[in-house]
Design brief:
The protein contains 21 helices and twelve strands. The protein has 606 residues and is an alpha/beta fold. The strands form three sheets. Strands 6-9-10-3-11-12 form a six-stranded mixed beta sheet. It has a four-stranded antiparallel beta sheet with strand order 2-1-4-5, with no helix packed on it. The protein has a two-stranded antiparallel ribbon with strand order 7-8. Strand 9, helix 19 and strand 10 form a beta-alpha-beta unit. It is elongated. It starts with a helix and ends with a helix.
Length: 606
Amino acid sequence: MLKKLAQSIKGYTKHTILSPLLIMGEVIMEVIIPVLIAMLINCIAPTGEGAEGETNFIAVFFQKLIGTPSESGDMNYILLIGGSIAVCAIISLIFGSLAGRSAAIASTGFAKNLRKRMFERISHFSFRNIDKFSSSSLVTRMTTDVNRLQESFHMIIRTAVRSPSMMIFSLIMAFTINSKLALIFLAAVPVLVVGLTLIMTKAHPIFKRMFKRYDKLNRVVQENLRGIRVVKAFVREEEEIKKFNEVSGEINEDTVKAEKILSYNMPLMQITVYACILLICWFGASVIVNYNVFGIGEKMNTGELTALLNYTMQILMSLMMLSMIFVTIVMSRASAERVCEVLDEESTITDPENAIDAVADGSIRFDNVSFAYHEGKNVLTDISFDIRSGETIGIIGGTGSGKSTLVQLIPRLYDVSGGSVIVGGRDVREYDIHTLRDSVAMVLQKNVLFSGTIKENLRWGNENATDEEMKAACIAACADEFISTFPDGYDTYIEQGGSNVSGGQKQRLCIARALLKKPKILIMDDSTSAVDTKTDAMLRETMANRIPGTTKLIIAQRISSVQECDRIIVIDNGKINGIGTHGELLAGNEIYREVYESQMKGDDKE
């Protein structure tokens, strides 16, 4: 998992390495300061061995550099030591500022790369992969989870380097002052390790469950916003609020449970460290007053005890920061697992070796095809038929009969579970995916427009389309008549999801977008359901004249939308119930005849 995440550091390696190095410089300067303070105290108020008896290697170094005090309270010596402390503090400040800058650049770059990798991976997912995760979960993983990992990464390359370094260096310095007193710190380590391990073991499963509930919360919000018109039309605001509060309450409950467990972290740290301080003060003061008390047998002076207490506080602060890192890592571990699930997911649809890069024509053949979304019952079973290039085929059947699923197998949005789909004389699994899908234009049942101008939406079909080509496609799709009424015409801005145009206008814009592709196969999945019968008839007529060589598959609920097709396929419960012309099916297919008669009765009543 760490190796997978570490790949996102690429491009920011320099700052990732530089930040810990600068932190090390900052820590070294801060570790030197307590020794200099000890020398200052010993010069002003010498006790025991005094300044001349210094044994710490840093103190010895500075004594060789600036000399020793000529007498107690030597002002020149005090000024030199004070100046050295100021220089160390300034250098530490510079190192810390530069480290913070590098850590910020590295962590934001890491998050940028991670989101890019996730988005690229998701973009290549098949429909089956997306069904596995759900869109709300993928959104949460790319936002909340990545933000949490960014915070963790920033903390790891900065605080997680500073805290252990400070603790190690402070321990080393404490041992150089009095090795036996410093053993008190080592005795505290097992207590902390056991306590932190227990906290992590208890908290991690709760955070993991909590993030799954964030997915649910995201889904509830998305559904409410997307269906806000339906919610208001059915006066369901209170029910939606109740649903949101329930999910939000579950997250709150998990958060409180996790935080209660994590709250033991700080008391554990404080009790352990303050116990160390108390013991050091007690034993240290006794050693200064009465040499070799408690069998310690090492001389100390006031300055050294002060330095030892300073190092104790540095160790305390390091442990406090480590506890913060610990809490962050516990929380981000679940996020890391969720992000890696996306990065590890392989698309179920990939390009084959030596892929075919050209589709010969728009002929289609289904050879004993079966398909299931999940293991279990097939959605389609034993589907076999042939379509000649340039034919217009109608597909009709009841809701849930498998019509949309059938046509989604042609551009390989899903792969068949059994049998094969042949396009242009070759199995669709032999084609380069981009080549295949570029030869197939789909106007989906759920029409989708993106935020941008009408021109920008139309150019999804052909990014190099001229204004004349776009206008011609819109005329064929009966869209030019309403576009021309807009003040800005083709530069009219479309809101997200096409919320500022009607359902029928949205459908016609989507048809125009598909026509701009000049495809070999055009699939219209109930894409004229929101237009009137007159416009529907005009659309069929203009498309027949404009793209006569294109194979057209028209899924519809209305018999009138398909009765003029060359052939009509009737699907019932995932199986082909009949294939033929309007007249043939009307004479010999019971399902088709029942649908026709029910619709004709409705027309007669009108």
